[in-house]
Amino acid sequence: MAIRGLRSGVLSGALAVIVALTVVTPAAATPRPALPLVDYPSWDQVEAARGNQAATAATIATLDQLLGQLQAESARLGDEAVKRAAESDAAQTQLEHATASATTLARQADAAAQASSKSTQRAGAIVAALYRSGGTDLSSTLLLTRADSSSNLLYQLGALGKLGAQLDLAVQKAQADRNQAAALSAQATVARNERERLAAVAKTALATARAALDAANAAVATQQANLAQLYAQLASLKNTTAQVEQAYAIGLQQSNDGGGGDGTVTDVPSSGVNDPAAAQAFAWAILAGYGFGQDQDNCLLWLWNRESGWRTNAYNPAGPAYGIPQSLPGSKMAAVGADWRTNYRTQVTWGIIYIMDRYGSPCGAWAHSEAIGWY
């Protein structure tokens, strides 16, 4: 169905359910104090425009423009916060892997150094044994040995031969152990330097992520209030409701065609509280308001289990897709609220309106997801 169909009939009434379940400033028939932002029309200005068709049209155009700008700014700050948080998380993961690798190589290098020391000591012990056996001067041993001592000479020669063979093996092993220790020591140094480099990268990424998150969070309250007022003012001039205007804005968005990609869905740190049970209860209440049965509950359960596990901060960088409904991109949900990164109510509200507009019902979206792999 077209989203414009939400302006009247049963669906308009069902949107009232969302009003009861979300904290949204309702449309007002009487003027109210304007928000302390000079660029936004006051309620007095909106009421003054109502009596003139041209003024009404001009004010609606102004409100639409301001609404678009507000949503774009909320999207920009939110997308930046999500992106930087994901980058910081990836940098931290790389650092953890590099730390583990550096630790392992350092242990292996230490073990190799100890083995090299032992093999060198063994070679030295054999040299000492040869020295004590006269192995340093075999000709002297032959000249000084009497003829009647031939058996003793043969014994000495045999012993020296055995020691010589052992020395060759010991020297070869000592050299091999020394080479192994040197190679592992070099690898450990490279790994340690890489870990230090990644530690600096992770530190910078964390600082950048925190700055982006602070900027987005600082703007949420003001953006949310302005968003609610703009929707209410539009509704007042069009004789609709703020929720219908909200649904209309969502209907104008591009679909999630192509899905979120084949990437792995992870969690973006510090980007919302995951409460799947509460999110599901909220979704069932909205669906009940639309008159859907529990079969639709199950379809939505399966759909968003697949997409995100009902996690508010679920993120697929391949999209990039975000949130419980895996909005592509996540900032589309700014049409419902500036707190789209952290509030499951905002995400679920957007997701259900999106599904209603594109597929008619959760089971319609589930069938598409089963057939195509995305919705």
Textual characterization of the structure:
This protein has 10 helices and 3 strands; from the N terminus they run ααααααβααββαα. α7 runs antiparallel to α8 and α9 crosses α10. The chain folds into 2 domains: 1-27 and 241-375, no CATH class; 44-239, Helix Hairpins. It is 70% helix and 2% strand. The protein has helices at residues 9-21, 43-49, 53-132, 138-144, 150-238, 242-251, 276-289, 294-307, 344-359, 362-372; strands at residues 266-267, 314-316, 321-322. β2 (314-316) and β3 (321-322) form a beta hairpin. Strands 1-2-3 form a 3-stranded antiparallel beta sheet, with no helix packed on it. 39% of the residues are buried. It has 375 residues and is an all-alpha fold.
Count of individual domains: 2
Mean pLDDT: 78
The biggest beta sheet reads: 3 strands, antiparallel
Q: How would the global form be characterised?
A: elongated
Question: Helix count?
Answer: 10
As for the CATH topology of the largest domain, it is Helix Hairpins
- Residues in β-strands, percent: under 5%
Given this structure, which CATH class of the largest domain is correct? Mainly Alpha
What is the H/E string? HHHHHHEHHEEHH
Q: How helical, in percent, are the residues?
A: 55-70%
Number of strands: 3
Strands of the biggest beta sheet: in what spatial order? 1-2-3
Q: How far from one another are the termini?
A: 15 Å
Second rung of CATH, namely the architecture of the largest domain: Orthogonal Bundle
- Uncertain residue ranges: 1-38, 138-151, 153-157
Which structural class do the helices and strands define?
Answer: mainly alpha
Task: Determine Rg (CA atoms, Å).
Answer: 37 Å
